[in-house]
Amino acid sequence: MTATGASSPAWTIRDLTAEDLGWMAAQEERMFGASAWSRELIQHDYLYGLTRYRGLSLEGELVGYSVYGYDGDAFHLLNIAVVPDARGRGLGRALMDDFMAAAREEKAPDAWLEVAVDNVPALALYRSYGFEDVRIRRKYYQPEGIDALVMRVELRGFEPLTP
Ligand SMILES: CC(C)(COP(=O)(O)OP(=O)(O)OC[C@H]1O[C@@H](n2cnc3c(N)ncnc32)[C@H](O)[C@@H]1OP(=O)(O)O)[C@@H](O)C(=O)NCCC(=O)NCCS
């Protein structure tokens, strides 16, 4: 997935490689502090999880990433971030477009995510893709103890099994 044009700088989204994981862990630490995904968790999930790690490069430099996965039933967004200096330029939306396209490609019935109830930018981003509130998970984000909002968007209607 790429974008070029006079008005928007070029960006590219690709799978992260094992060599990129150190960069991602450093961004996690910088952005999320105590609740960051650790290098060990990232490494283990990258190698053994049912997840896909995506990276967004702007002018050749990684500035954002997402992690998503499909368990054969529902599509899940597990992580998405743009480095602070690159925010507000449509790159979060580019990562969301990539996620939604992957979910549709899998013909997933719906997509799910969790977001901190006080994360105003992320909530606005997700709502703009049609995600709706499902339930609250109390004290989901530790160690801060912030509640998570579980959100879902339907991608296709219920298809009953035919005999
Ligand atoms: C959420 C995040 C990925 C958005 O990235 P971004 O590159 O700044 O987003 P974009 O520029 O593509 O903006 C897309 C939409 O997000 C929302 N948004 C972005 N910044 C916002 C802000 N400061 N306040 C309110 N809404 C905001 C808007 O709906 C915006 O759409 P619009 O430009 O049409 O108004 C980014 O803020 C981030 O990395 N935050 C820290 C990590 C994080 O919280 N991830 C979510 C974990 S659940």
Describe the model:
The protein is built from four helices and eight strands; from the N terminus they run ββααβββαβαββ. The chain is α+β, with helices and mostly antiparallel strands. The protein has a single domain (2-154), classed as Gcn5-related N-acetyltransferase (GNAT) (Aminopeptidase), CATH 3.40.630. Strands 1-2-3-4-5-6-8-7 form an eight-stranded mixed sheet, sandwiched between helices. Strand 1 (2-3) and strand 2 (11-15) form a beta hairpin. The longest helix is centred in the middle third of the chain and has 15 residues, at 91-105. The model has no long low-confidence stretch (mean pLDDT 93). The site of coenzyme A has 19 residues, from strand 5, helix 3 and helix 4.
SSE inventory with pairings:
Elements: E1 2-3, E2 11-15, H1 21-32, H2 39-48, E3 51-58, E4 61-70, E5 75-82, H3 91-105, E6 110-116, H4 120-128, E7 132-141, E8 146-154
Parallel strand pairs: 5-6
Antiparallel strand pairs: 1-2, 2-3, 3-4, 4-5, 6-8, 7-8
The chain binds coenzyme A (COA).
What is the overall silhouette?
globular
Structural category is alpha+beta
Per CATH, the architecture is: 3-Layer(aba) Sandwich
* Strand ordering within the main sheet: 1-2-3-4-5-6-8-7
Give the tally of structural domains.
Answer: 1
Q: What separation lies between the terminal Cα atoms?
A: 39 Å
Instruction: Indicate the CATH class.
Output: Alpha Beta
Characterize the biggest β-sheet.
8 strands, mixed
* Rg over C-alpha atoms, rounded to the nearest angstrom: 16 Å
Bound molecules: coenzyme A
Fraction of residues in helices? 25-40%
Q: What is the fold-level CATH name, i.e. the topology?
A: Aminopeptidase
Discrete helix count: 4
What is the strand content? 35-45%
Q: Spell out the helices and strands N to C.
A: EEHHEEEHEHEE
Low-confidence stretches: none
